[in-house]
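quick one before i forget lol
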Amino acid sequence: MKAVVITRLGGPEVLEIRDVPEPAHGPGEELIRVQAGGLNFADTMTTHGGYPGTPKPPLVAGREFCGTRANGERVMGYAQWGAFAEVVAARSALLWLVPEGWSAEEGAAFPVNFFTAYFAYWKAGLVGQSPTLPKTGEGWGTQARGSRVLIHAVAGGVGTAAVQIGKILGVEMYGTSSDDAKLDRVKRMGLQHAINYKKQDYEQAIKDLTEGEGVDAVFEMLGGEHAAKSIRCVRDFGRVICYGTATGQRAQFDPGILYAKGASVHGLWLTYLSANRDLMQQAWAQLSAWAEEGRLQPVIGDVLPMERAGDAYRLLLERKNFGKVVLKIV
């Protein structure tokens, strides 16, 4: 079968289309014939050897896909690697039926973005059972409406997913991007406050827009100095949800800045959460219900053939994407 292979560690130039053997499926797995694959920042990290737990190259790239089961059912799924190929061996527990009317590209653009965005709201205590509250039935996202959330990289895949979920929850959303045209598009999706971080400091913008109060939660995937800046953007008892390091730098902050306002920093790693079957099922129950109601729709900016995988990776690395970048496999 044909596959996008990471031949060695490096940038997009290390990707090649190669003929490789079809995978064998193990216990709890099944073979899926892939039609499209969704590209994520984790994939760009993998080529450099920066994603934890990934085998050394050569390695078939990709962790998100849409295709068909042996019985013809259309499914979308999540794997750790091997998705950018004509066939992937996937865990049955991490396969979900594609909503009626969606294309293969939309299916491939859903799992990572929408599960990550959902769990960001969950970590913030704004949807589902809060991970920091007792299971008494109280605090099940009842504080979402009117809460303030700052979403970094709001025009990206997770960002546009977070805006859609935030609109459903009634959250007041603030979003950052370096492109006014992208911000205008996200505002049409429901973002209330757009911040071009190249034109204004987003920390100061949050202070001005909230009259010094700050936001309840920040969805932070930049790393480096932005962890500390994001903490300064929250108000008392606010939460910063860290789920990435797009700058390539580890989060940098002095825990002392948390004390004065009782703030907290939460890590979100979908690789880890995806092993919790009950948690994934609970998230899918809510996400699928919203999708069936037509309230969620993956935003796709570019669809490229697998032969142009290097170009697809560059779109992400150069921040030229809006929403999801998808590879057409067959």
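fyi Confidence is low (pLDDT under 50) at residues 131-142.
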